[in-house]
């Protein structure tokens, strides 16, 4: 049987080059930022390495500690798990974007007043997660501990200490400042 060899005019049978970068626009803390990034770049690395926004921390790099939490279109997200190219056109808010000029965000003030941190490494992620969590509760999203009758009405979920602890359970604090974190969040709860 005759075999037919297929020849390719490209470099010695090598596949054609693939463009592994994309240009995208992220709306970071109210400003449009145009970036050209490798497709494998996480949002966390884009923020830290390409934009100099170092508030979100690289803790576990596996989405388990919450130190990298930011808000994407108003919802909290672990930025170490998100590919930056998939966030093209989305609004990203980091800890650096929460203050109103020189005035800290009320959550930032509450964390300071309650001394809700020790080493501070997890604090930016804790604050961004708390802000997202407040929005989720306001929008009526139940948690594992939300009473069924409360969840059924679809209205805002009241936040007590148990509800806050459950909703913040994805953010770890190696120093154990959890009681003060809960108190700080309670201080800004409507």
UniProtKB/TrEMBL annotation:
Record keywords, A-Z: Iron, Metal-binding, Oxidoreductase
PROSITE patterns recorded: 2FE2S_FER_1, 2FE2S_FER_2
Domain 2Fe-2S ferredoxin-type: 22-98
Oxidoreductase found in the keyword field: yes
KW Glycosyltransferase (keyword) present: no
Segments for region (Disordered): 1-20
Membrane-traversing stretches: none
The name this protein goes by in its record: 2Fe-2S iron-sulfur cluster binding domain-containing protein
Organism per entry: Streptomyces halstedii
């Amino acid at each position: 049987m005759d075999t037919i060899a297929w020849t390719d005019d490209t470099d010695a049978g090598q596949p054609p080059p693939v463009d592994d970068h994309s240009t995208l626009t992220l709306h970071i803390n109210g400003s449009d930022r145009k970036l050209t990034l490798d497709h494998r770049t996480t949002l966390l690395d884009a923020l830290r390495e390409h934009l100099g926004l170092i508030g979100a921390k690289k803790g576990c790099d596996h989405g388990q500690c919450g130190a990298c939490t930011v808000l994407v279109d108003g919802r909290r997200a672990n930025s170490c798990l998100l590919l930056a190219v998939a966030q093209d056109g989305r609004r990203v808010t980091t800890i650096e974007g929460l203050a109103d000029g020189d005035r800290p965000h009320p959550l930032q003030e509450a964390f300071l007043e309650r001394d809700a941190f020790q080493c501070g490494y997890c604090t930016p992620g804790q604050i961004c997660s708390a802000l997202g969590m407040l929005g989720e509760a306001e929008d009526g999203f139940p948690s594992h501990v939300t009473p069924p009758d409360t969840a059924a009405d679809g209205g805002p979920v009241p936040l007590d200490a148990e509800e806050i602890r459950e909703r913040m359970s994805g953010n770890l604090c190696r120093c154990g400042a959890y009681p003060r974190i809960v108190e700080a969040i309670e201080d800004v709860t409507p």
